[in-house]
Amino acid sequence: MANTFWLINLSLENFKISQERSFDIMGFSKKDNKLTNKIDKNDNVIFYVSELRSFVGLAKVNSKKYYETKKIWNISNNDEILPYRVKLITPKILSEKKFVSAYDVSPSLSYVKKWAPEDWYLAFITPVHVISQNDYSIISNDIENNLDNSKLLKKKVKKTKKKRKV
Q1: Which of 2, 7, 41, 156: CA 20 to 30 A from 65?
Q2: Number of domains present in the structure of the chain
Q3: Per-residue pLDDT tens for 98-128?
Q4: Does any domain span residue 67?
């Protein structure tokens, strides 16, 4: 089955919570359960922060969707815990100064063509979106180009040499 390309709209607060967790999982509400039933291992995810109107990173799905009730994110509806979840791998999250402005990218996305050009941001109001591979490529290329290579270097695991017994 072909990979699906997802755009996840996060509040700034939940972006920071996910960032503290190193973007290891992503949660969805009951309202988005039907759409996210399509999410599968190896799907690609773009993260968008609505308050900043910026694309802030990407990751790959590493599990089937599962149900868990541990509260992680802060949601305006306190009864909602985003229980439908997937595990993520290889997150690439931009530093704040490198966020990709959606004002610059959105005019080239087919996903926003249904809206008047001045209202492009309305395309991303809901939390979960399926986008085209072309739109994913446009956004992910901008994210990749803005990655702070110095941060990537710090995250690499150091290899230690084993000492030989003489």
Answers
A1: 156
A2: 1
A3: 999 999 999 999 999 999 999 999 999 999 9
A4: yes
Task: Confirm if 88 and 61 have CB atoms less than 8 A apart.
Answer: yes
Q: Is residue 107 part of a domain?
A: yes
Reading the block at residue 72, the tokens are: 């992680």
In a domain, 31, yes or no: yes
Span 28-49, pLDDT tens digits: 988 898 999 999 999 999 999 9
Supply the DSSP string of 5-43, one letter for each residue: EEEEEE-HHHHHHHHHTTT-EEEE-GGGHHHHTT--TT-
| pLDDT confidence tier of residue 81, bands split at 50, 70 and 90 | confident
The predicted structure's pLDDT at residue 71: 87
Q: Return the CA Rg of the chain.
A: 17
Closest to 96 (Cα-Cα) out of 8, 11, 16? 16
- List Cα–Cα distances, 49 to 57, 93, 126, 127, 143, in angstroms: 10, 12, 11, 10, 14
Q: Please, is 53 exposed, middle or buried when counting C-beta atoms within 10 Å of its C-beta (0-12, 13-18, 19+)?
A: middle
Cβ atoms of residues 66 and 99 within 8 Å: no
